[in-house]
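Class, carefully examine what follows:
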Amino acid sequence: MKLNLDVKKASPQEWINCVINNFDEFLKDHADCERKASAMAMSFIAKYPDRKEIIPELIETALEELEHFQQVYKIMEERGISLPATMAEDPYIKALLKNVRTGLQERFLDRILIASVAETRGAERFRLVEEHLEDPEMKKFYKMLWTSEAKHGHIYIKMALNYFPSEIVYSRLEYWLGEEAKVIEDLEIRPALH
């Protein structure tokens, strides 16, 4: 059984051009995204402690994302880049969250599927970064990242399948992929992951 679907709209060339031309700014946002991804995995544990089947994978995901943050931070230190004083709001995630349903079960499903879609988009974008970088070490780093993000996208689908029939999961995932394509279409081009 397929655990994810591909994004419906590819990132525009303007986005990768902006990232490569403003790479230090991209690194700042990338660091923030890794921190937020770790916190998101932990927030599922805090909000749904009764969903014991998924807690081990959520912990592992949170730790991996935190490790990615540590790795990005090390690159930033080497380049003399400081972390931003505050973490900016992510317009991509904010736009997706506007459509989350309010029922307890529906909200859980929507949030876990948004996590999957965001990880899948992260994989697509990190792959583009890897393809456009010239430094061999940085290429290697971003290749590792995009494969990890793709795996996280799969993990969140697998988590959803613990609690909902596959037809409901995949139908709702299809909806979220459509919504995500609209968000990407309207998103301002900036040196940020989302």
